[in-house]
Amino acid sequence: MKSYRVPQLAKKYVEYDMIQQHTDMPSFPESRARLLFAFLNRSDDKRDGRDELYPLVTSLVQMGLDTHDMIDTAKEMPSPSKMRSRQLKVLAGDYFSGRFYQLLAQAGSIDAVAILSKAVCDVNESKTGMYRSMCKFLMPPQEYLNRMAVLKKRLFLSFTPWIRESDRKLWESLLQEFSLCDTLAEELMRLEAAERSRFSFAFWGLLEKGTAEEKELLLNGTLDGKSWRQLLLKYKVGDLLADKLDAVLGRIREILSEADDKDREEFGRMTEPFLRLIHTPGTAVREG
User: Fold this and answer.
1) What Gene3D superfamilies does the record tag this protein with (predicted)?
2) Nearest one of 158, 136, 129, 161 to 44, comparing CA atoms
3) pTM of the complete model
């Protein structure tokens, strides 16, 4: 099998000194890109290096969407540094999204342009529905996680027709579970960063479990950082997320138990970063 080098190919598109110095960027969708590469590499159709091209361009589009999601939309006048960060996120997101058109057009993969463009439309439509539910405060925490995982897998799922038919069940099952892993890992990192945002599992979990007074503070946005962390510890949000991640990894092991030895080894290795995340003690949001 061809060696996996999609992150290395992506570096020249995502690593710019100005962006890295003045703003933060989303994580590279490593597990989803690696999955897509692995299954395309097993396909009978390997024309024009598509097993690398499709994971690369899909990752760039994903990073473009994720970058735009990170833009601060606060109404108050931002500081010069925050304004620069906001402008760079807009430009970087547009750049990542635009590169996929160029790369696919150069490779003559016009059909893939149409498929990915449709997927982007679906993602944006799903986000709109999700935001509407959030505005009405109709978002149970587990539903939030499930809907976020769907958003993370949608672009990559577009390439199912290029995957060998005998592999599609395994591909779709693993993509679902690794998208949940990525979602839960992202939520754990948000806890460590003490992000107080309704775009998080923590917000919806606290809103579901909190007292009437705590809910009022959450809804009014008047909860300070110290109180936020105290609520996270009180309701053991970090431990809950870690338990959920552990359960997803258990489902991956169960899926792979029916696979051959090569698949168990290859895809089993992909769980290692998530296992390390579970077993690394948190600084302020998990007990122990």
Assistant:
1) 1.20.120.1450
2) 161
3) 0.89
